[in-house]
Amino acid sequence: MTDSLITKDKAALRGESREKLPVVSPAVDIYQSDDQFMLVTEMPGVNESTVEIVLDQGILTIEGRTERLDCPSLEGFKLTHSEVITANYRRVFKLSEEVDIENADAVMKDGVLTLRMPKHERAKARKISVRSE
Questions:
Q1: Is the pLDDT of residue 80 over 90?
Q2: CA angle 69–13–110, rounded 5-degree value
Q3: Dihedral pair phi/psi, residue 111, rounded to 5°
Q4: What is the DSSP letter of 125?
Q5: Is 54 within the bounds of a domain?
Q6: What is the pTM for the complete model shown?
Q7: For 120, phi and psi rounded to 5 degrees?
Q8: Local confidence band at 71 (pLDDT 50, 70, 90 cut-offs)
Q9: Contact at 8 Å (CB) between 38 and 31?
């Protein structure tokens, strides 16, 4: 069993997006307590309705998409310079067997996704009593 929650699956990260949009690999912080793991990633501009978290054969995929904002007050103007892009966010991880994904919980607030994943009971630290004979 590994000491860490996950390991990056670099081969899966090399895949191209179906929509041919730029793929952004957001930075991730991973925390661990005695009974759970917590993954935190910033996904600015991503609405929670576009976030997908999928587990398939031990591979966790987190995806989200930014949307270009339509601004009705721009009628009569044409775009002459643009730095704002529409992009897909994507990270792929191989989960540790310690994770109880059935009881995981995800929350998106202000562009920050927090995924809490409890550990299976069998993976939690236990104290073993020593008795004398």
A1: no
A2: 35
A3: 80, 10
A4: -
A5: yes
A6: 0.70
A7: -60, 150
A8: low
A9: yes
pLDDT value of residue 21: 73
Residue 127 lies in a domain: no
Q: Domains in the chain: how many in total?
A: 1
> Which residue type is seen at 105?
D
User: Which residues, 6+ apart, have CB-to-CB distance to 39 below 8 Å?
Assistant: 5, 6, 28, 29, 30, 31, 113, 114, 115, 117
115 part of a folded domain: yes
**DSSP class per residue in 4-59:** SSEEE-HHHHTPPPTT---EE---EEEEE-SSEEEEEEE-TTB-GGG-EEEEETTE
What domain range includes position 40? 6-68+80-121
**Residues making up the chain, counted from first to last:** 133
Going by pLDDT thresholds of 50, 70 and 90, the confidence category of residue 72 is low
Q: Amino acid identity, residue 108?
A: M
Burial 35-48 (b: 16+ CB within 10 A, else e): ebbebebebebbee
> Percent helix, strand and coil across the chain, each rounded to 5?
10, 40, 50
3-state secondary structure of 102: helix
